[in-house]
Specification:
With about 325 residues, this protein is α/β, with parallel strands linked by helices. Helices cover about 40% and strands about 15% of the residues. The protein has helices at about 25-30, 40-55, 75-85, 85-90, 100-110, 125-130, 135-150, 175-185, 200-215, 235-245, 270-280, 290-300, 310-315; strands at about 20-25, 60, 60-65, 95, 115-120, 155-160, 165, 170, 190-195, 220-225, 245-250. α2 (about 40-55) runs antiparallel to α12 (about 290-300), α7 (about 135-150) packs parallel to α8 (about 175-185) and α9 (about 200-215) runs parallel beside α10 (about 235-245). The longest helix is centred in the middle third of the chain and has 17 residues, at about 135-150.
């Protein structure tokens, strides 16, 4: 008998935490983009549908980047029409990553109504990932955000390297705040604070959130995106929840990795997050058993077990 059937985890609320958390599921995009072997388009579509069936209502579907940069996502034009009905029939949001105006054009042509851009808090990562300075990348995003907002499209911005950079080391909080403030002023609806190499700790998380508030960036527009490289993702998530954050990025089965940190275990697993939130009495709308079955299904197609502790425990697979 699995632990959910035994009534576990027992829900014991903690003070000053949100009643509900929106999980921003990134497994189908951020998770799969790191896979070396090409995942068939039909498998990706089925994965997204299964994630929606588990109760997830925000599922990042794909990325409209140049095929040369992310070969795994060259099928964006083929994939999105296979799942776009979820938005119409089930109210599921299917955001897509758009790196520039060309990516936006491709996304809008297929009817995407939620897009995301990908910024950096550090010069080194901006150069490595975008081949631009931080300011040059912000200038590139400006027409993307402006055009999207004019078309009443919801715009999120990821901000990478908010806590540490593999070349520059610790990232000053004021540096992160400057980029976040610029993106919000640009018109972004939502900002996701990325711990790209997984080096954040709870005090750092709370200090960054407090400084953002002081500089006029409200908690209501902030989400958090933690990697579990050093086993800190859930602790950092709890610190963010204590500050009032209600949007948390996670990846089903813990799919995804960090190319800049050896031994990185990748994104926070959605199942691990849901287990903690259920134990805190926080509503997510997610059926943990269905989500776990989905991650087991995908792991079988990828040919390796899920790194998620919760998936292993509930599926009895080591």
């Amino acid at each position: 008998m699995s632990t959910p059937e035994l009534g576990l985890p027992m829900a014991v609320a903690a003070p000053d935490l949100p009643a509900r958390v929106r999980i921003y599921e990134v497994g189908a995009r951020d998770g799969l983009q790191n896979e070396k072997a090409t995942v068939p388009t039909e498998v990706k579509a089925e994965f997204i549908r299964r994630l929606a069936d588990s109760g997830l209502t925000t599922i990042e579907a794909t990325s409209f980047v140049h095929p040369k940069w992310v070969p795994q996502l060259t099928d964006a034009e083929q994939l999105f029409p296979l799942v776009s009905d979820l938005g119409r029939s089930s109210g599921v949001h299917l955001p897509v990553l758009v790196p520039n105006e060309r990516g936006l054009d491709r996304a809008l042509a297929l009817g995407a109504r939620h897009v995301a851009v990908f910024a950096s808090a550090t010069e080194s990562f901006a150069k490595a990932n975008l081949n631009r300075t931080v300011d040059e990348s912000l200038a590139m995003f400006e027409p993307v955000v402006s055009r999207a907002k004019a078309d009443k499209v919801h715009v999120r911005s990821y901000i990478s390297m908010c806590f540490g950079d593999p070349w520059e080391g610790p990232v000053p909080i004021h540096q992160v705040v400057r980029v976040c403030r610029a993106l919000m002023d640009m018109g972004c609806d939502e900002l996701s604070l990325g711990d790209t190499i997984g080096v954040a700790t709870p005090g750092h998380v709370q200090n960054l959130l407090a400084e953002l508030n002081e500089e006029g960036v409200p908690t209501s527009v902030l989400g958090v995106h933690f990697h579990d490289t050093y086993g800190q993702a859930l602790a950092n998530t709890l610190a963010a929840l204590q500050h009032g954050v209600t949007t948390v990025d996670a990846s089903a089965g813990g799919l995804g990795g960090c190319p800049y940190a050896k031994s990185a275990t990748g994104n926070l697993a959605t199942e691990d997050l849901v287990w903690m939130l259920q134990g805190l009495g926080i509503d997510t709308g997610v059926d943990l058993a269905r989500l776990t079955a989905t991650s087991v299904w995908m792991a079988e197609r990828l040919g390796r077990p899920s790194p998620s502790r919760t998936v292993k425990a509930l599926s009895h697979k080591e």
